[in-house]
Amino acid sequence: GSSLLTGPEGLMAKERENLKRLKCLRRYRQRYGVEALLHRQLKERRMLATDGAAQQAHTTRSSQRCLAFVDDVRCSSQSLPMTRHCLAHICQDANQTLFKPCQGSEEVPCNKPVPVSLSEEPCCPLHLRLPPQMYVPEQVLAVPEELEAAPTDLYLSAAELQPTESLPLEFSD
């Protein structure tokens, strides 16, 4: 840019204006002097504030206990992430939609929290209703009595199956 000013013929008004714009574009979004110092200090303060808040939020979240009361005693379990209740008492939270209590059966009522799944009535593993059996075993056919009483003398014993002489093995190509 400075070589244009030292030329023998000088600059016209339009060229001077273009040169000014070019210099402004080089400095675009760059801070100099006091402005740069203040901007750096602001960035450092923001970093300290956000790092401190993140650490503080992490320590408070990890140490939060369940808000449920059982027999006038507060539950000592750790709460689930982003909630105020533990897994055993999550159904007490009216705003949550991820868990429902197990309906159980007529003989054995159950209120254990179960994750909502694709079924309309989610159940715990104890009260899960299995689908009907798809495999039906074949019926055993009755064997006629005459086949059951087959003579056993038709079968050879293990000693009779042994070869009496050894024959050489021959291989051909």
Automatic annotation (TrEMBL):
It comes from Stercorarius parasiticus (Parasitic jaeger). Keywords: Chromatin regulator, Isopeptide bond, Mitochondrion, Nucleus, Phosphoprotein, Ubl conjugation. InterPro entries: NSL2 (IPR026316), Znf_KANL2-like (IPR025927). Residues 72-127 form the KANL2-like probable zinc-finger domain. It is found in: Mitochondrion; Nucleus. GO terms for cellular component: mitochondrion; NSL complex; nucleus. The keyword Nucleus applies. Its main location: mitochondrion. It comes from the Eukaryota. Component of the NSL complex at least composed of KAT8/MOF, KANSL1, KANSL2, KANSL3, MCRS1, PHF20, OGT1/OGT, WDR5 and HCFC1. Non-catalytic component of the NSL histone acetyltransferase complex, a multiprotein complex that mediates histone H4 acetylation at 'Lys-5'- and 'Lys-8' (H4K5ac and H4K8ac) at transcription start sites and promotes transcription initiation. Required for NSL complex stability and for transcription of intraciliary transport genes in both ciliated and non-ciliated cells by regulating histone H4 acetylation at 'Lys-5'- and 'Lys-12' (H4K5ac and H4K12ac). This is necessary for cilium assembly in ciliated cells and for organization of the microtubule cytoskeleton in non-ciliated cells. GO terms for biological process: chromatin organization. This is KAT8 regulatory NSL complex subunit 2.
